[in-house]
Amino acid sequence: MRAAVDNRTALTGFPHLRQDFAASLVVFLVALPLCLGVAVASGVPAELGLVTGIVGGIVTGLMRGSSLQVSGPAAGLTVLVFEAVREYGLPVLGVIVLTTGVLQILMGVLGLGRWFRAISVSVVEGMLAGIGLVLIAGQLYAMADAEAPASGPAKLAGLPATLAESAGATASLASLALGVGTIAVLVLWKRMPKRLRAVPGPLAAVGLATLVALVFSLPVATVEVQGLLGSVQPPSPSAFGGLADLGLLATIVAFTLIASAESLFSAAAVDRLHDGPRTAYDKELVAQGTGNAVCGVLGALPMTAVIVRSAANVQAGARTKASRVLHGVWLLLFAALLPGVLGHIPLPALAGILVHSGAKLIPLRGIVSLWREHRGEALILVVTAVSIVAVSMFEGVLIGLALAVAKTAWEASHIRLEVIDKGAGPVQAYLSGNATFLRLPKILDSLEALPQDRPVELDLSGLHHLDHACRTALESWAERHSSAGTEPVRVTAP
């Protein structure tokens, strides 16, 4: 009788424990292959992806912010991490991630989290599309068991020849076939019977690829296993000396902006999926920063909130943050108790998962609809994506932001000139809107086209804004028009 009372008390204290426990298992099965795939694609030991997933679940998961959002290593930062590791080395990655976390905590404490919602959606989608393109190109080389070129354009240009060469080599062909098969399973999994779909698609795809590779003894590369503790590499004091390098500082800024924007945009998307408490953006930014600071101390990958895992968490029936904390516990137990399993996972299968994830980052349907309704925004999206592929992540995002600001400034400077000429008496000109230097040529052309031998009444009362350049130009025009022998221009001030 007493045991029954204790059980009821436990359930009362955790009324949603059953739903959260079941959801945590689903999220764990979704997160496991993604953590490994992101780590391998980033050029770091696979276990570091699990470390970030564990920290994202247990550390960030316990903190306040967004109750159902799940954090971990994300495909959106893969390209940036790979470039940073290649240029500065793995020991400096911890410094980058730790500094990124500290900056995120500061921004959250200063209340800057909500301002990330002001970033143009087209720039963010263009950023993700650019990342997706580079990710797909790079992972196709991994699927074909070939080394990818360094730059984005070189990756795209060399793909046809690489794929053609892989068709003539047994090992490359087997690797490519396994990767393509993994993608096929991911695409077709939604059409499988409901009972089968209880297993998450990424886990099923990797599991089947591993089974095929073992049964047929395929000559494909597999994950290199170092062990969880062996892969952890805290940054040494000497690694912090790189913070004096402007290039490294620019990389940290890129990490901070992209990780923060992706996490907060993901939070907004997750809020639309459930009816529970809404995200506290500043607290969520502090939580993400704390997780990244811990990951930096451990020398692991950076983390963001991940929409795939978060959506799986909500759809699996999670009610509280317990589900994401438990998913981190399951990742820890797996990495600690079953590390040998990782050594059997084929790398082309993980590459196939990343190719599929990269494709989902490219909003093809969204671009088409955006082009029909807002061509300027569609152009910003495409230019941002192409710039990331052609130049680099940081420069591409800056180009996109500059275009968004220029477009906003152009639209904000909208002005209308209405001329009323009754044939006799003064010509009446009404200016309304925002008079800025951006529209100054148009304003002057219209005013200078007015009859020179007639008096003019210029009404500026409809202007919301009149900058110094326009005011000076209008005064000069009025003097020139009055000097022709007509009556002085009458101006109604704004």
UniProtKB/TrEMBL annotation:
Signal peptide (residue range): none
Gene Ontology biological process terms in this record: transmembrane transport
InterPro entries referenced in this protein's UniProt entry, alphabetically: SLC26A/SulP_dom, SLC26A/SulP_fam
The name this protein goes by in its record: SulP family inorganic anion transporter
Lineage, highest ranks first: Bacteria, Bacillati, Actinomycetota, Actinomycetes, Kitasatosporales
Topological type in the membrane: Multi-pass membrane protein
SLC26A/SulP transporter domain sequence ranges: 17-384
One cellular component (GO) term of this entry: membrane
